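Design job #97: recover the sequence.
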């Protein structure tokens, strides 16, 4: 499916789900994001899909509560990022010039990007269009 557009995401409470269309089966399918377990749902219309998503989240939260389980995914705060050698060099040089670690620079860049979500979303959409026409 490629990069998700904001139109391919549903939100309910504090949970998000990615959405795909199965044209052959003529149904929408969804997957809840950011949790420890795999929760899928489906619907033959958008309203049916939204209803199934809400029911899936509510059922999941109720089940987690009844068994004493934390529903949210645990993030350790570290992850690997793969970039081109040139981008790695430029980022490392920029960090050194500003007397910070590469890790501090990446944290700053991520924070900045998340504060500028609309601009970043527009750039991602433009890049996705370029990939689709290539």
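Job complete. Output follows.
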């Amino acid at each position: 499916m490629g990069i998700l557009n904001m139109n391919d995401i549903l939100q309910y409470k504090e949970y998000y789900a990615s959405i795909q269309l199965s044209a052959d089966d003529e149904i929408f399918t969804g997957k809840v994001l950011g949790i420890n377990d795999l929760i899928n749902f489906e619907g033959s219309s958008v309203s049916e899909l939204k209803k199934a998503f809400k029911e899936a989240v509510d059922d999941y939260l109720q089940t987690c509560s009844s068994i004493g389980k934390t529903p949210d995914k645990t993030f350790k705060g570290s992850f690997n990022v793969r970039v081109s050698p040139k981008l790695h060099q430029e980022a490392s040089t920029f960090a050194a010039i500003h007397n910070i670690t590469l890790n501090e620079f990446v944290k700053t860049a991520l924070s900045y990007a998340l504060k500028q979500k609309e601009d970043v979303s527009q750039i991602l959409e433009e890049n996705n269009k370029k990939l689709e026409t290539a």
